[in-house]
């Protein structure tokens, strides 16, 4: 894909995808990141907290299905993860039913030591069943059209 292919998809959102937050998935994610916080593991402990049930770690939403942007076919080679940032509005709790979607919101071309790069900025949002914003995120992906390896 070239710069113009990405530019025509700017602002196109994926259809929101329903994601159900499961207790077991929260525990597995917390184990995977090595976080022993009892809010993520211990139901009795979490029940006594202000949340009343297990809480998902802050980056848990990366496990969600965000759907696909119509017409966007990401290359499988030449991709580099640039950065990721989050904005939290509400905690994600066990039993929540959330809707996740994303869009390509910025695209730029740059040249670097290894050649041409296309910087893709994706915006992600997670909403609850009432339509309230739970979490937002931005991710920068660097695409090297000539491939990912050094020459």
UniProtKB/TrEMBL annotation:
InterPro entries per the UniProt record, alphabetical: FAS1-like_DH_region (IPR039569), HadA-like (IPR016709), HotDog_dom_sf (IPR029069), UPF0336/Enoyl-CoA_hydratase (IPR050965)
Pfam families documented for this protein: FAS1_DH_region
Superkingdom of source: Bacteria
Domain FAS1-like dehydratase: 9-136
Residue stretches spanning the membrane: none
Molecular-function GO terms, alphabetical: (3R)-hydroxyacyl-[acyl-carrier-protein] dehydratase activity
GO biological process: fatty acid biosynthetic process
SUPFAM superfamilies: Thioesterase/thiol ester dehydrase-isomerase
Protein name: Acyl dehydratase
Native source organism of the sequence: Alicyclobacillus vulcanalis
């Amino acid at each position: 894909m070239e710069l113009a292919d990405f530019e025509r998809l700017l602002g196109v959102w994926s259809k929101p995808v329903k994601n159900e937050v499961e207790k077991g998935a929260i525990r597995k994610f917390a184990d995977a990141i090595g976080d022993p916080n009892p809010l993520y593991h211990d139901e009795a402990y979490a029940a006594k907290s202000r949340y009343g049930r297990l809480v998902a770690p802050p980056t848990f939403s990366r496990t969600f299905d965000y759907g696909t942007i119509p017409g966007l076919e990401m290359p499988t080679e030449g991709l580099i993860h640039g950065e990721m940032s989050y904005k939290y509005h509400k905690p994600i709790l066990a039993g929540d039913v959330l809707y996740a979607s994303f869009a390509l919101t910025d695209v730029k071309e740059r040249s670097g030591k290894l050649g041409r790069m296309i910087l893709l900025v994706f915006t992600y949002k997670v909403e609850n069943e009432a339509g309230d914003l739970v979490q937002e995120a931005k991710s920068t992906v660097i695409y090297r059209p000539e491939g990912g390896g050094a020459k």
